[in-house]
Task: inverse folding
């Protein structure tokens, strides 16, 4: 607690960890390229340097606020330093801004513009580094790296994956996997969080946009889209609509306009997952085997578990993820010549996630020898495609998703936020469905931003203990404790990205704290507006179980390595 | 054998004194410099010569011996190595070769006579005893007292000269608090560069809530040309270990780490031996001398990064992480090694501790200046007559060091500048020769003691080239973490490189100053912040030289090859055409038997013409 003077104005502070936070609280957008509240303080870019009343300069990110402090954030001297630092960064940076995927969203670009860097006096003498596009999810271009270390700390501090770090030193320093391996040769789980924090185009999403445009134009191809829950709350603000607003109706419209033949809702797939996973949980509880049951809807988590905790691989739910269940069902549905009209069917899923690009390539993501989903487009790619099309998204009317997979329950929609899967399963297992029942679940501890949440619930007189983790670092800590026998759970929901899919590696960036909570709120609001709250009460789901799925539940809905082979 | 209490320690010391008693001691310098000069061969030869002599004991520990032949640590007079000191006459033989051994044995060891040609000569005078040589006479050797005078490979030699008696005093007569108080009162300041008060540091560590604490010694002496710490580690390792132990006792730490650069293999080996021998007699380990104090010491090898001399990078390196400085706070005293409170001092600082404990704070305050008491070791190098390792009281003037101890500038040349404090320090000139060498006085004139490197430069030194050299060092050693240091020093170096290459631009000076100001004000760690110092201090003192390089494309000293201008003396040139025939660039024209001339535009500055001219008619323009 105390008061400090920032640029001549008194500012109160309480428990802010550093001066930078206090400065921002005072509505001064002090520039930085390496500070993220969720990462450890690194202090590499020095852009947030401030000056005190004695003329001493120091970085505001690493200095705790003290009562009575007097600091200046914008003296001519500081502005000169910032400009020079940016000029130096630009001088060692690939400056093909006009053709860079990050153009317009690049923080280096925008800061350089803000600070008025109009000339770079130094030549770029850096050795050209090869681009690593070995991963199905991300592309690394070291020539655009400014060595801020955000990705390194994300991969280490938050995700505990640790596949990239600094190598070499001085101007030769590089961010790279150990021994200069390619990303695909490492334990990378494709979560894409490195790309989320990367301020430049050094780590970007591996895109599929061009091939999708070609397919959309091809008259002999039927292109099917499914839209994941978290996508609908992350697009609006890109087109001037309020952040976090659910724009599902506009998305359906825009996809139709772009040429997608059918647009479905992945929440429908999520409903299938809830039903299957609840069943599996009950079975395991009965047999007492392979507990806790770990969710398997997050492909980055599945990879992480397989790589780092193979002893728990058996505990992973055998259920396919909503994307994959949906993919298999769609594929089965369009086998019928009456449905496919003799056209080739291409299944595209629109996801907040980079790991989904890897998931579709896994052997168990195929049925009868054919890949269930052909392409994954991330939200970010979709936004680019909309911009390219010229369609004024913000002005579009809303449209309903197509049948017969156009309705998802509220439970399916909240899959996109941490705790959503657990809440959906709880709804499924509860008998009633009135508001009081739903509220009981809502306030049981499943909601909120915390990286680890614990809930207990009663099922037929038995207490079921569940844990909800988001962020692989939190998962890692929890797994260690489970392994050591310190804690016991029956059900564990894991999402690789902190806060869940709304903050997935494929979502538009940058997303500040307000955007983050707006996206979470957006999904919960959509649930409030849905009449069907429980997955098992989705009428379309019932129809499917009674018809197309009959006898094929296991083959189409579970991670079945046998099913991947040809019939 | 483990020493269990104070009485046993006393007995052991007496025992050592008995065993070490000798009528004549032959100390052959085993420091890195003399070893490189072949002192090991001298040692072997001496052993061989004395093998069958009943009066000579070469085996360590034999009780009655008349003559001992042993390898000592560095004497400091490295320029004159290999050195051999012979006691009790205190003769110091210089530049000894194995061929001299026979004569030394016959004349000096057997007959006690000196060999004049092996003694140090200066200005016609011969110095028989080591202590009379001006290089030594003007020094105050306290920390380096035993360096060169004891056998660094055996603890017994150290015990004879009182090793671990300060530890004994601390353990049995003082509380940890009173140890800290004494160090605090002595005003001992860190010898690693910044001059932070050691007592204050210890106090801060002792006051932390966390009870697991570490004591770390910074032996990563990375400054080019500095070797003070190496000499202490090689020549008197027990003094430093004792200092660390006293620090550990004061802050109640049980574990210590010595971080030594891997380029110091001999120091590492001597420290390993010292630790091992101290463990064997129970000086290190559990319940030291029967008390409740336990202390274990580990050695960590640095992998050669200059930046690992910075505290947080050093502890990161010990932890097995990439050696990069981190932001502070938390400071090392709060969260250092393994995030525990840590006392981190450098070798020389620890080596000062035992004598303060032994003689008291008052005594220590009597040496040097009140604000910077004690002595400081410097590595005196460059164009000075006597180079080597020296120790002087704080507050001595540069003039005394260069002229009295260093013997003035080599070859009668004129003094130009001195670089003090290594690549993080500054250049001082003639005007500042009478300023005092202590932490505060030097800070006032924009320089720093740093770790103690002193590079003396004569009139033939190009100051732009000096700045370029130091900048190339800091640039190469930048860890790459913060932008100002990584990118800023790179650009400063580029500018300096083009100036010395003759491609300087009129805007270069302003750009250098702009970059320097930004780096000094914004870099993350001390090394980054001080990286522009050599450039700024030379820019301030030698602005004209920079201007000449940039505008006139001239280097007065002739050091910058690309700026050399060869000229043919028309009076001497006979027109033989040899220069023109040997010029690879075809830059020399003329007619036979009349003077030739050089086309400066075509000249590639190779100097072939000057070498070939039979009449010495070609020279470099000054």
Result:
């Amino acid at each position: 607690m105390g008061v400090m003077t920032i640029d001549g104005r008194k500012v109160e502070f309480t428990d802010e960890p550093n001066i930078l936070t206090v400065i921002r609280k005072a509505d001064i957008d002090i520039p930085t390229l390496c500070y993220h509240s969720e990462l450890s303080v690194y202090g590499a870019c020095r852009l947030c340097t401030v000056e005190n009343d004695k003329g001493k300069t120091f970085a505001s990110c690493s200095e705790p606020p003290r009562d009575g402090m007097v600091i200046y954030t914008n003296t001519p001297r500081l502005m000169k330093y910032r400009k020079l630092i940016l000029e130096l960064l630009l001088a060692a940076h690939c400056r093909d801004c006009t053709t860079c995927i990050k153009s317009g969203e690049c923080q280096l670009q925008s800061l350089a513009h803000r600070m008025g860097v109009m000339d770079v006096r130094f030549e770029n003498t850096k050795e050209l580094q090869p681009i690593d596009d070995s991963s199905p999810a991300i592309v690394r271009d070291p020539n655009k790296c400014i060595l801020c270390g955000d990705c390194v700390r994300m991969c280490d501090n938050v995700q505990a994956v640790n596949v990239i770090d600094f190598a070499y030193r001085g101007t030769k320093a590089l961010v790279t996997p150990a021994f200069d391996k390619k990303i695909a040769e490492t334990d990378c789980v494709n979560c894409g969080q490195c790309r989320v924090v990367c301020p430049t185009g050094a780590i970007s999403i591996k895109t599929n946009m061009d091939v999708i445009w070609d397919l959309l134009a091809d008259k002999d191809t039927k292109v099917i889209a499914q839209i994941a829950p978290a996508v609908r709350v992350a697009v609006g603000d890109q087109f001037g609509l309020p952040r976090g607003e659910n724009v599902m109706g506009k998305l359906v419209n825009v996809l139709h306009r772009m040429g997608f033949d059918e647009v479905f809702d992945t929440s429908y797939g999520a409903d299938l997952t809830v039903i299957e996973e609840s069943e599996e949980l009950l079975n395991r509880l009965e047999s007492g085997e392979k507990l806790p049951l770990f969710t398997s809807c997050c492909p980055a988590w599945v990879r992480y578990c397989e790589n780092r905790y193979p002893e728990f691989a058996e505990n992973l739910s055998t259920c396919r993820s909503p994307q994959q269940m949906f993919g298999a069902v769609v594929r089965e549905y369009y086998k019928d010549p009456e449905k496919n009209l003799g056209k080739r069917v291409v299944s595209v899923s629109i996801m907040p996630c980079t790991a989904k690009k890897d998931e579709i390539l896994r052997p168990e993501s195929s049925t009868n020898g054919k890949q269930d989903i052909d392409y994954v487009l991330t939200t970010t790619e979709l936004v680019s495609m909309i911009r390219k099309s010229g369609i004024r998204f913000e002005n579009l009317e809303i449209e309903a998703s197509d049948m017969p997979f156009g309705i998802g329950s509220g439970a399916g929609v909240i899959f996109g936020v941490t705790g959503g899967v657990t809440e959906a399963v709880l709804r499924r297992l509860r008998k009633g469905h009135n508001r009081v029942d739903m509220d009981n679940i809502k306030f049981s501890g499943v909601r909120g931003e915390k990286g680890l949440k614990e809930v207990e619930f009663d099922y037929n007189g038995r207490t079921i203990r569940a844990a909800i983790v988001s962020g692989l670092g939190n998962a890692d800590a929890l797994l260690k404790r489970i392994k050591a026998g310190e804690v016991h759970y029956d059900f564990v929901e894991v999402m690789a990205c902190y806060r869940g899919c709304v903050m997935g590696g494929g979502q538009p960036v940058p997303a500040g704290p307000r955007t983050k909570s707006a996206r979470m709120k957006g999904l919960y609001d959509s649930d409030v507006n849905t009449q069907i709250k429980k997955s098992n009460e989705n009428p379309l789901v019932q129809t499917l179980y009674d018809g197309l799925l009959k006898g094929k539940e296991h083959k189409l809905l579970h991670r079945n390595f046998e099913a991947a082979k040809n019939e | 054998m483990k020493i269990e209490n104070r009485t046993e320690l006393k007995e052991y010391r007496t025992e050592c004194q008995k065993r070490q008693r000798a009528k004549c001691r032959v100390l052959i310098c085993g420091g890195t410099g003399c070893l490189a000069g072949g002192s090991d061969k001298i040692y072997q030869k001496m052993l061989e010569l004395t093998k069958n002599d009943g009066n000579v004991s070469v085996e360590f520990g034999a009780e009655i011996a008349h003559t001992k032949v042993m390898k000592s640590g560095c004497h400091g007079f490295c320029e004159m190595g290999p050195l051999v000191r012979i006691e009790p006459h205190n003769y110091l033989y210089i530049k000894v070769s194995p061929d001299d051994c026979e004569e030394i044995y016959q004349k000096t060891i057997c007959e006690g006579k000196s060999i004049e040609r092996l003694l140090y000569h200066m200005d016609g005078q011969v110095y028989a005893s080591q202590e009379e040589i001006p290089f030594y006479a003007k020094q105050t050797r306290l920390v380096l007292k035993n360096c060169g005078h004891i056998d660094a490979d055996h603890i017994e030699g150290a015990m004879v000269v009182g090793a671990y008696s300060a530890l004994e005093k601390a353990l049995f007569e003082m509380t940890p608090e009173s140890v800290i108080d004494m160090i605090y009162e002595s005003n001992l300041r860190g010898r690693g560069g910044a001059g932070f008060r050691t007592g204050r540091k210890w106090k801060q560590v002792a006051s932390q809530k966390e009870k697991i604490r570490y004591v770390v010694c910074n032996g990563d002496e990375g400054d080019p040309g500095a070797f003070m710490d190496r000499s202490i580690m090689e020549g008197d390792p027990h003094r430093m270990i004792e200092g660390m132990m006293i620090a550990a006792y004061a802050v109640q730490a049980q574990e210590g780490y010595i971080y030594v650069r891997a380029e110091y293999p001999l120091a590492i080996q001597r420290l390993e031996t010292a630790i091992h021998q101290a463990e064997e007699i129970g000086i290190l380990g559990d319940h030291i001398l029967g008390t409740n104090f336990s202390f274990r010491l580990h050695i960590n090898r640095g992998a050669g990064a200059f930046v690992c001399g910075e505290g947080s990078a050093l502890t990161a390196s010990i932890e097995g992480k990439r050696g990069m400085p981190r932001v502070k706070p938390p400071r090392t005293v709060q969260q250092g090694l393994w995030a525990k409170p840590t006392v981190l001092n450098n070798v020389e600082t620890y080596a000062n501790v035992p004598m303060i404990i032994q003689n008291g704070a008052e005594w220590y305050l009597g040496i040097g200046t009140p604000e910077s008491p004690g002595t400081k070791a410097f590595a005196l190098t460059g164009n000075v007559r006597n180079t080597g390792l020296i120790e002087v009281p704080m507050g001595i003037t540069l003039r005394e060091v260069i002229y009295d101890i260093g013997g003035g500038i080599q070859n009668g040349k004129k003094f130009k500048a001195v670089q003090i404090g290594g690549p993080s320090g500054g250049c001082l000139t003639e005007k500042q020769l009478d300023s005092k060498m202590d932490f505060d006085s030097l800070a006032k004139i924009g320089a720093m003691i740093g770790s103690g490197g002193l590079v003396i430069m004569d009139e033939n030194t190009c100051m732009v080239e000096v700045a370029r050299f130091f900048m190339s060092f800091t640039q190469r050693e930048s860890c790459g973490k913060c932008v100002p240091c990584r990118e800023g020093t790179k650009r400063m170096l580029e500018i300096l490189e083009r100036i010395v290459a003759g491609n300087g631009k009129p805007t270069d000076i302003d750009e250098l100053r702009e970059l320097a100001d930004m780096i000094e004000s914004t870099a993350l760690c001390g090394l980054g912040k001080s990286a522009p110092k050599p450039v700024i201090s030379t820019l301030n003192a030698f602005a004209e030289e920079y201007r000449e390089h940039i505008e006139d494309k001239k280097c007065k000293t002739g050091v910058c090859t690309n700026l050399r201008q060869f000229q043919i003396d028309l009076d001497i040139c006979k027109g033989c055409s040899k220069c023109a025939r040997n010029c690879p660039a075809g830059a020399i024209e003329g007619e036979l038997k009349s003077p030739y001339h050089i086309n400066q535009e075509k000249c590639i500055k190779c100097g072939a013409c000057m070498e070939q001219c039979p009449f010495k008619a070609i020279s470099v323009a000054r």
Observations:
- Chain A touches chain B through 36 residues (CB under 8 Å).
- The radius of gyration of chain A is 25 Å.
